[in-house]
Design brief:
This protein has 215 residues and is α/β, with parallel strands linked by helices. The chain contains 8 helices and 6 strands. The strands form 2 sheets. A 4-stranded mixed sheet has the order 2-1-4-5. The chain has a two-stranded parallel ribbon with strand order 3-6.
Length: 215
């Protein structure tokens, strides 16, 4: 999937540029500057939910068999995901079912890529942190989750050559700095030949925020 491909490229840029050219160095420094990922860290969730998560984030919590595991407790999913979906519902104005499906989809996608991509992590960012419990493999997988979350928070649809039927997912510098809009945003990315342009989709008055839809 595009999410797996973008995460793999990002991990490779961080860990496997031994003979770095200037463009590789700039890209690596840009990726290292990413501070936050998508919603779901303990600081986002609060102590009531974060006490139930497995690993560092909501992304690493749960399994593909959660529906069967928790059905006997009359719960649709892992308790942390269930409680987090209520918070996400309030933040995004979606239904609780939509929030739960979105959280589950993120976890499912992470679990589908972690085994293949953890080998790209040469040294985990938490490998020498004794306060974080887990095997070296666990910590490499958590690096994959952290990178995947940051990629999701910055990924955007890029229209190729002004053809709306031909699109791809990309991470574009500066685009991640735009404000959030639930109405689709007032800009879009367009690729024309070798250039990527940020174009307005409506009139933007002086002083108005330049926005995109992060959901």
């Amino acid at each position: 999937t595009w999410a797996t491909e973008l995460t793999a490229v990002t991990l490779a840029s961080l860990h496997h540029n031994t003979d770095e050219e200037q463009t590789d160095t700039i890209k690596k420094q840009w990726i290292q500057s990413w501070q936050t990922g998508g919603w779901g860290t303990p600081s986002d969730l609060g102590p009531d939910i974060s006490n139930d998560i497995v690993g560092p984030t909501i992304l690493t919590t749960g399994s593909d068999n959660d529906h069967n595991i928790y059905a006997k407790f009359r719960m649709p999913c892992h308790p942390a995901l269930f409680k987090a979906s209520m918070g996400l519902e309030l933040l995004t104005k979606c239904t609780q079912e939509q929030a739960r499906e979105a959280l589950y989809a993120r976890g499912f996608t992470y679990r589908s890529m972690r085994d293949a991509l953890q080998s790209l992590v040469v040294t985990s960012t938490t490998e020498h942190d004794k306060s974080i419990k887990g095997t070296l493999r666990d910590k490499r997988c958590w690096d994959v989750a952290d990178t995947f979350s940051k990629v999701l928070a910055r990924a955007a649809t890029l229209t190729l050559d002004d053809d709306t039927s031909d699109c791809c997912a990309a991470i574009v510098p500066i685009h991640e700095r735009l404000a959030h809009s639930l109405n689709g945003g007032n800009t879009k990315l367009v690729s024309i030949e070798s250039e990527v342009l940020l174009v307005a989709t409506c009139d933007i008055e002086a002083g108005d925020e330049i926005t995109r839809d992060y959901t």
